[in-house]
Each structure stands twice: as C-alpha cells, then as structure tokens.
Amino acid sequence: MIFALDCFAQNEIEGLQDIQPPVDFPPNYFLLFLLLAIALIVGAFFIIRFLRKRMKAQKKIVLPAKPSYLIAYEALEELKRLNLPAAGKIKEYYTVLSDIVRRYLESQFDIHAPEMTTEEFLHTLHLSPSLVARHKELLFHFLNLCDLVKFAKYGPSLSEMEEGFTAAKKLIDETKQTEGIILKK
C-alpha cells in the first residue's frame, strides 16, 4: 500500500509544472485618460463659476450711502412744504421736527436718540464727546421747547416755531461732516 501511494505521488509530481510568468497585457490608458478628462472638466467648471461670481461682484456699482445731513435737509424741506403750523397741527410739526433732529444725530454720531426720552438723551449727550458745548446747549433748548409743545400743550408763537426750525437747521449745518471734517460756521 505504501508502494501504491508512492506511485500515486510520483505520478502527481510528474504532472505538476512550474509557475508560469505573469501575462503582459497591453496597457489600456483609455480609462486613465477618461478619468483625467472628467477631472479637468469638473475643475474647469468650478474655476469658471468662481471667476464669474467674482466678476459679477466687481461689476456691481456700489452707490455710497446718502450722508445723514442731506437726509435731514430733505426731511426739513418736506416739513416746510407740508406747512403744518398753518393747518393748526403744531404738535405734529414739533414731533416731526424733533424726530428729524434725533434721527440725524443717531445717524451722524451713533447716538440712539429716537428710542430715548429727552431726559435720557440729554444725559447721554452730556457724556458724549460727539458734540461741543454750544451744540449741546442749542439741542437742550430745542428739545425742551419741542417737549413743551408735545406734552405740556404749550402754544408757541409763529416766531418761536421759526426759531425751532432754524435751530434744527443750524445744528445740522454746524455738525455735518464732509469727508471726515466737521464744518463749523
């Protein structure tokens, strides 16, 4: 039996052959070129998209914001055109006039005037270096007159109304800034 196994093993060994060398396939660069082309197309798409967005952002014309003093002047002219005192709307006239000044100060000096009471506003203004003493005093008298009319039912004369309008315009004239310079008359 041992002999039979030996013969079987020898027959098997004779039938076995050595390992064959690897088969060389011709190189197929088509798939590599296809993947490279897809990558280039996708990359070009994103680069073009980026450049177009950048060019559109540069093409937009940014108009400078209208200076706060010009907005205030326009509002004063509109108030003058409405002629509220002639219609007997004195309280409304002073409400709009003080609102114009407060909004101007908020925009020009970053003082949040419209949300404050006159007393709070004057206290904040007293601590602020934004205005000089004569402007603070002018504003104090102007706002007190407005409050008298709005809340104490004070009936100002026509000359007092004109003085209030003139005071508001004077405050704007003297505190407006053009190109970073405070103009003073």
Task: List the defining traits of the structure above.
185 residues; 2% strand; single chain; mainly alpha
Description of the molecule:
The protein has 185 residues and is mainly alpha-helical. It has two domains: 28-62; 68-182, no CATH class. It contains seven helices and two strands, in the order αααααααββ. The protein has a two-stranded antiparallel sheet. Strand 1 and strand 2 (181-182) form a beta hairpin. Helix 3 (68-82) packs antiparallel against helix 7 (158-175), helix 4 packs antiparallel against helix 6 and helix 5 (118-127) packs antiparallel against helix 6 (133-151). It is rod-shaped. The chain starts with a helix and ends with a strand. The relative contact order is 0.09.
